[in-house]
Design brief:
Length: 162
């Protein structure tokens, strides 16, 4: 899948502005930090032929499991990982699948990806922090059991009080 980003170098419309030799232009926040450096820079010359330029990535490299690109693996990344658990991303670009939790590059978010996220989170924080993170969201079965127990307890108290 190709995403085209077209921008004038003169600040106006796509009017054939110029870029000096060896000059650079920033694409700003158009690129999301992932392990996939897959941008291509092409431009049209005056004779309508197309040439390619060098794309240079600057700054710190992407940290695995840092889905929001802030440089740290945190609860915010967990919040991006969890909604896509056990989802396949067939047909999606690798970078897009990665941002949805595909850490091992097999176009899904499964238990293998969970194990990688867990290891990365623990390495960045601690095992106790991970336990607190996953403990903060009860599993549906636990929530159902707690609700049933509460209802049962309340009905027993009503019968005794009546």
């Amino acid at each position: 899948t190709t995403l085209q980003i077209a921008e004038s170098v003169t600040g106006g419309t796509l009017d054939g502005g110029s870029l000096a030799p060896a000059a650079s232009a920033s694409i700003g926040s158009s690129w999301k930090k992932t392990p996939f450096n897959d941008l291509v820079f092409s431009f049209t010359l005056g004779d309508n032929s197309v040439a390619t330029g060098l794309v240079q990535y600057t700054g710190a490299a992407a940290t695995r499991s840092d889905f929001n690109g802030d440089g740290d693996v945190t609860a915010a990344d967990w919040a991006l990982f969890v909604p896509n658990s056990y989802t396949t991303f067939t047909g999606q670009p690798a970078a897009q699948a990665y941002l949805k939790g595909d850490l091992d590059g097999d176009l899904d978010n499964d238990f293998a990806d969970f194990r990688l996220f867990k290891a990365d989170f623990i390495a960045s924080n601690s095992e106790a922090a991970f336990a607190a993170l996953v403990g903060a969201v009860p599993e549906p079965s636990t929530a159902v059991l707690a609700t049933v127990a509460t209802i049962a307890f309340a009905s027993v108290r009503r019968r005794r009080g009546a």
